[in-house]
Amino acid sequence: MTPDPFAHLPNLRGTLTPADKSEVRVTTEVLAFSLLGDLTNTQDLWVYGYGSLMWDPGFHFAEVRLADIEGFQRRFTYKITIGRGTPEHPALMVALEQRPGRCRGLAFRIAADMVDAESEILWRREMLRGGYNPAMLPVTAPQGAITALVFTSKHSHPDYVGERPLPESAALIVRACGPLGSNRGYLEQLADHLTILEIEDEYIEQLLKQVKAASAVQFG
Q1: b vs e for 7-23, b when ≥16 Cβ sit within 10 Å of the residue's Cβ?
Q2: For residues 75 and 72, what is the distance between their CA atoms, to the nearest angstrom?
Q3: Closest Cα partner for 189 from 66, 15, 24, 69?
């Protein structure tokens, strides 16, 4: 009998984009994944998701759990001109910033025999712009402690703009739209998935309120 990857979170079943239908899954080249070292093909790999990985991981996984990472918070701190933005109206995307408290997200387990192929997919998706600092960090799940691959913000990257006042962030998000959809749609997907998971995130809730208010003013 095939193990159920949603055994711990059955309410997620049917809400995640399947890997074979994901827009971020590309397999045209092989990338070196030196960070994992000898882990490839010998051990399972845990991957921590706090943004779009939570609803569109793009890789095959054997299990998913709720997971907390201490000392980090979600913040919209990257400005991009592709995907959900344009050079005229850049989008803001979420990153994991060092802040007091904790961030609750998801930990996905990639089975050992799939790590080589699936980490290639993941690496290309997350490191295409070189905008993150990948690291193996401790996270905590209800089932116990895990060491997971986490992509945190990289302040030296040219797309990094830091945390802005909520009204300023909202004004950018309302205007931005690109080939993958609107910036507001991205924020709403994130907020909706946090609701599905019963995760409270005051920053995301307040930002969405600001976006709705800004949209009402802009579009009447």
Answers
A1: eebeebeeebeebeebe
A2: 9
A3: 15
pLDDT in tens, 71-130: 999 999 999 999 999 999 999 999 999 999 999 999 999 999 998 888 888 888 887 777
Find the catalytic residue in 126, 163, 198, 205: 126
Query: Is there a catalytic annotation at residue 70?
Result: no
Share of the chain above pLDDT 70, in %: 89
Token representation of residue 6: 């949603």
Nearest alpha-carbon partner for 188 in 94, 108, 48: 94
Report the alpha-carbon distance of residue 95 to residue 192 in Å, rounded.
17
Using the structure block, give the residue that is written with the tokens 């996905």. Answer: 108
State the amino acid at position 9 in one-letter form.
L
Which residue's entry shows tokens 């924020």? 187
Contact 55, 106 (CB under 8 A): no
pTM flag (> 0.90)? no
List of domains in the chain: 10-219 (3.10.490.10)
